[in-house]
Design a protein that fits this description.
Chain lengths: ~525, ~120
Amino acid sequence: MTATSVIELLRQQIESCEAQLRDLRQQLAEAEHDQQQEQTHDRLRHATDPHGDPLGHDMNFGIHDDFRSEVFAALSHVEADKPSAPRWPLDKSEYKRYGRQLIMPEIGLQGQLRLKNASVLIVGVGGLGCPAAAYLVGAGVGILGLIDGDTVEESNLHRQILHSTGRVGMTKVDSARIALNSLNPNVKLVAHTSHLTPESAIRILQLYDIILDCTDTPASRYLISDTCVLLGKPLVSASALRTEGQLMVLNNPPLRAGDSRGGPCYRCVFPKPPPPESVVTCGDGGILGPVVGVMGILQALEAIKLLTRNAQPPLTSEPMLAQPSDPPSLLIFSAYANPMFRSIRLRTRKPKCAACSAQASVTAKALESGSLDYVQFCGTVNPVDALSPSERISVDNYAKLRLAINPFTGMEPSKESHILVDVREKVQYDLCSLEGSINIPFSMVSHTSSHPYNEGNGRQQGAEEQTWVSSLRAYPDKPIVVICRRGNDSQITVRKMKELGLDNGGQRWIGDIKGGLKAWGQTVDRDFPDY
Amino acid sequence: MYYPSSASALICGGSFNPDPALPLTTSNMVKAPPGHFSILYFAAASTFTAKPSEHLPAAIKARHLFAVLESKYPGISEKVLSSCAVSVNVKYIDIEGDDAADLDLLIEEGDEVAIIPPVSSG
C-alpha cells in the first residue's frame, strides 16, 4: 500500500471516529437533559400534588422560607411511603407525544395502552427494518427487539434511514439503537447482535408478541415463518428488490398447526424456494430507497393495526363482536406501474403445508436440534467454475497485456491486439468501463441460443441478438478477453462464445479476466469506481 | 493510475442492448383484445420474459398455463415458475401438484393472470 493511501485511510478513520464521538456526545447531552427534566418534573409533582399538599393553599404566604423546605420534605416523605395510583393512564408527556394518534378512533387510549404493553421483534435492521422500527418506536410500542449480525456499510445509507455516515462500521443494531433512542427514549430497545439461527429462533421469537420479517434471504424467510407457526405469533413479512415490493400478514390469526381457521404461513404461499441461482440480492439487482422504505413502513402499519385491533368498542348497543381479522392477502407494489399496488387475495392454509397443516413436518424439536437445514432447503450457489486455468487471465497479467508484452503471444501491445468484451448490463457499463472495451450485456448473451441453426427448439432469435455474434465473427484472428463485475458472468460468456464456434475450433483464444472489474479496481487501478 | 490506450478502437464500440428504453414494468397495461387474456409478469418473471405483461390466447385450463409459457420461453418453468405464486383476477390459485385445487380452473377471455415469484431481498 502506498504512503498516500495509508494517509488517506487514516484521515477517513479519524473522520469516522470523530463523527461517532459527535453522535455520542449528542446522545449524552440528550440523555442528561431528559434525566434533568425528569427530576425537576418529579420534584414539582411532589411539591404541587393537590392530594399530597393539603397545606398548600393556606401556607403559601405564611410559612417562612426556612420552614417551607422542611415542610415540603416531610410531605414528600409521606408521599414516598404511600405512592398513590397515577391520576391518568398515560404519563403527561405521553399524551403530548402521542396526541396526534391518540385522538384517532382507530387508536384512542386503549390502542395506545396496547401499543405500550406490546413487544415487537424486527428481524433485520436494513432497508425494511429501519423505517419499520422508526415508526413503531415513534408510535410508542413498549419493547422493540432488533436482530442483525451485520455492520453498517456506506452502500446501505441511501435506504437504511436509521444509520448515518458517522456510524459506518458500527453494528447495525447499535447504530439503530442510537437513532431510535433519540427518537423516543420511552421505548425499551432489546439488542440481539447476531443473525437468527434455527437453534436460537424459538428462544428469541417467543419473547415477542409480533414478528416483522425484514430479512433478505429465502432461508431466513422460511425459518422465521416456521418459528412463528410453532410459537403462535402473527408475522408481518415484506421484501423489496429494484422497483418492486411484496407484503403479507401471515399466520393471522395465529392458530395452532392443523387448525384450518388459522392464517396461511409463508410456505402456504411459496411452498418451494426459488432456485438459488435465480435469487438476486440488492447488491446485484439494485434497490430504490423509497421502494424498500414503503414496504418497511407498511410493515409498521400492519403491526400497529394488529396490536390495536378492536381497541375501541363499537358505539352501537349490539353485543360486542370481535372483528374478524382481514382476509389474508399478498400486496404487490410496483413503483413504475399503473396502478402501483395490487392486492392478491390469498387462500386459507394449504391442506398439506409442511409447517401449519395437520400433516406438518416442521416441529419445535426438529428446529431446535438443528435437523432442519434451511440453507440446504433453499440451496446454495457454488462460485462459477466453468473454465480451465488456460482460459483465464489474472488482472495483473491483463494489465501487462494492455501495457507491455502479451504473455501468451510475446507480441508488443498494439491498439488492436485483442477485443475486450465487457458483459455487464448497459446501465453499469455506462457508470465506468475500461477504455477500448465493447459492451455486450450478459442478458443478451444468455438469451442467445447456442444452436442457432436448430430451428426446432421454438426459441426465436431476434435479429439484434445475432449482431453481436456476427460482429465478433468479422474479426476471426483477434483474441477475445471477456470481463464482468466479479468474474462469474464472464466465464459463462466464454463458454457460450465457444459453443457458438467463435473460437474457430480453437484457432482463436477466448478467455476471461479472473475477479472481473472488482479485482481490477483492488489491485491494478485503485481509482476505478467500486459500486 | 494505469489507463493504457492500446486496446481501444476494436469493433463497433457500441452497445447491443435491444431496447434500453424499455422499462420492465407493468405500466399502463392495455385491455386484452378479443379472444385473449392478460398476463402480468412480476420480479424475476418480468426479467426472464423481458416484458412486464402481454396478451395470450384464451381460453386455457390453469393446468396448461405453465406449459404454454414454457413453449414461449424455454427454461422458464425450472428457473422461475417452479417457485411462483399465480393469481387469476387477483385471486391466488393453487396449481402445484397433481391434486391441486385449481388445476381445472378455466382462464377465460379478459381475465388477468399474474405470475408472482417470491422476492426475498430487502
